[in-house]
């Protein structure tokens, strides 16, 4: 299977979580539950005042990386290229305020995937020109998981990108629940990226199941 097809498949149910996105269980337990239940990709995103620092941060990343390898699920690192390289991550994800996508692409080469968060058509075009493999588009709806989130973009931007034959796969992020999946996929997205609907669910496995049932209708 080509790298491109692999990526599209991986982006269907993209679980994003750092130690700060804590729910009922400790985050590594939640990650393992989610991997076992069938998420197709994981991004380690350690951010904000409650995030781990130094040795604890690295130990968490190593443990998460190992878990993903055990379940053959691609492992992405948010905004830390050096650590992503050290951990032989499958990819790196950067936001608009992080290191520029073009520089990141140069540092990681072509064997690692690169994702970029965008909030407008213009940012989407730049991400493509800078060498991104996929874009995260958001916030889809209001979110509690990102302090500096922009205003919600809904499915309008996806429909616009589809209309323009935008060449990269897209995922929706921000406030996404299983009920949103059909609208998001109909608008042309390859998948959904989720923090709290899985990490803060009282039953993360059931939540993954609900996402997968919706996704499997497409
Ligand atoms: N990026 P939840 S919104 C990490 O708009 C992130 O780029 C966003 O968390 C963006 O699923 C977001 O809990 C938070 O709403 C997503």
From TrEMBL:
Residues 13-198 form the Thiamine phosphate synthase/TenI domain. 2-[(2R,5Z)-2-carboxy-4-methylthiazol-5(2H)-ylidene]ethyl phosphate binds at residues 143-145, 175, 195-196. Mg(2+) binds at residues 79, 98. GO terms for molecular function: thiamine-phosphate diphosphorylase activity. Pathway: Cofactor biosynthesis; thiamine diphosphate biosynthesis; thiamine phosphate from 4-amino-2-methyl-5-diphosphomethylpyrimidine and 4-methyl-5-(2-phosphoethyl)-thiazole: step 1/1. Transmembrane segments: none annotated. Pfam families: TMP-TENI. It catalyses: 4-methyl-5-(2-phosphooxyethyl)-thiazole + 4-amino-2-methyl-5-(diphosphooxymethyl)pyrimidine + H(+) = thiamine phosphate + diphosphate; 2-[(2R,5Z)-2-carboxy-4-methylthiazol-5(2H)-ylidene]ethyl phosphate + 4-amino-2-methyl-5-(diphosphooxymethyl)pyrimidine + 2 H(+) = thiamine phosphate + CO2 + diphosphate; 2-(2-carboxy-4-methylthiazol-5-yl)ethyl phosphate + 4-amino-2-methyl-5-(diphosphooxymethyl)pyrimidine + 2 H(+) = thiamine phosphate + CO2 + diphosphate. Keywords: Magnesium, Metal-binding, Thiamine biosynthesis, Transferase. Condenses 4-methyl-5-(beta-hydroxyethyl)thiazole monophosphate (THZ-P) and 2-methyl-4-amino-5-hydroxymethyl pyrimidine pyrophosphate (HMP-PP) to form thiamine monophosphate (TMP). NCBIfam families: thiE (TIGR00693). Belongs to the thiamine-phosphate synthase family. This is Thiamine-phosphate synthase. It comes from Sporolactobacillus shoreicorticis. The lineage of its organism: Bacteria, Bacillati, Bacillota, Bacilli, Bacillales. The gene is thiE.
């Amino acid at each position: 299977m080509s790298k491109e097809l692999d990526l599209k498949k991986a982006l269907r149910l993209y679980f994003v979580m750092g130690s700060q996105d804590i729910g009922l269980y400790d985050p590594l337990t939640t990650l393992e539950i989610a991997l076992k239940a069938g998420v197709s990709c994981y991004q380690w995103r350690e951010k904000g005042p409650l995030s781990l620092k130094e040795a604890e941060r690295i130990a968490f990343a190593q443990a998460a990386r190992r878990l993903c390898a055990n379940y053959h699920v691609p492992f992405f690192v948010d905004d830390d290229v050096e650590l992503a390289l050290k951990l032989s991550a499958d990819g790196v994800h950067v936001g608009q305020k992080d290191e520029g996508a073009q520089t990141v692409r140069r540092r990681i080469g072509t064997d690692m995937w690169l994702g970029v968060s965008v909030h407008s058509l213009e940012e989407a075009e730049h991400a493509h020109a800078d060498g991104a493999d996929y874009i995260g588009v958001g916030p889809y709806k209001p979110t509690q998981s990102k302090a500096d989130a922009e205003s919600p973009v809904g499915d309008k931007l996806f429909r616009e990108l589809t209309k323009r034959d935008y060449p990269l796969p897209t995922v929706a992020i921000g406030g996404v629940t299983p009920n949103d999946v059909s609208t998001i996929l109909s608008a042309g997205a390859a998948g959904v990226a989720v923090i709290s609907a899985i990490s803060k669910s009282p039953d993360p496995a059931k939540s993954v199941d609900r996402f997968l049932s919706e996704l499997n209708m497409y």
